[in-house]
């Protein structure tokens, strides 16, 4: 029940951005930042996968993986804002979909000391890409938008994984979902 309330609050917060879509508001570009993670299948799948995979971690990993992803994503955006060059951004994003999908498909539970740096490296690529698509938006409001969208996608992945029972059939469905994510990542790498 609590997850559905969080999701509802995030959706309502996301809708607030469209009310600020006209000039003259300090949050005028929140909506653009909110929309960007939803604009590509690669971002959507990677962020859902972080939520799904976080549930597998258990304990503090359930919130550390999504929080670490968001923090590293902001660091990636900051690198872009500072004019740093991050090589192979699209390949890094596609690799995030591939690797996270494989971890879900194989039902692998990495130790948190390995999983957190892994998702953080991938998040840097996502953050850098978000910044690159910012255009003339104000960095703070735009970043608030893409952080909100990312949290929404993480929560949706977590809720989906939590909603599924711990039956062999449900675990098989999660594995197939992970396999589909991995296959999509492989296709994206080849593009």
- Which consecutive residue ranges, at least 5 long each, have pLDDT under 50? 3-28
Percentage of residues in strands: under 5%
Decide which structural class fits the backbone: mainly alpha
Cα distance, first to last residue? 41 Å
Summarize the helix and strand pattern as letters.
HHHHHHHH
Q: Give average pLDDT, whole number.
A: 84
Radius of gyration: 16 Å
Shape: globular
**Main beta-sheet strand count, sense and barrel state:** none
The percent range for helix content is over 70%
Q: What's the tally of helices? A: 8
Total discrete domains: 1
Count of DSSP strands = 0
Pfam families: HupE_UreJ
Protein name: HupE/UreJ family protein
Keywords: Membrane, Signal, Transmembrane, Transmembrane helix
Would you kindly provide a written description of the structure presented here, covering whatever features stand out?
The chain is mostly helical and 191 residues long. It has one domain (2-190). Helix content is 77%, strand content 0%. It has 8 helices and no strands. Helix 5 runs antiparallel to helix 6 and helix 5 runs antiparallel to helix 8. The longest helix has 25 residues, at 139-163. The protein is globular.
Short key terms for the protein model shown above:
191 residues; mainly alpha; 8 helices; 77% helix; disordered N terminus
Strand and helix layout:
Elements: H1 2-19, H2 30-35, H3 41-57, H4 61-81, H5 89-105, H6 112-132, H7 139-163, H8 168-190
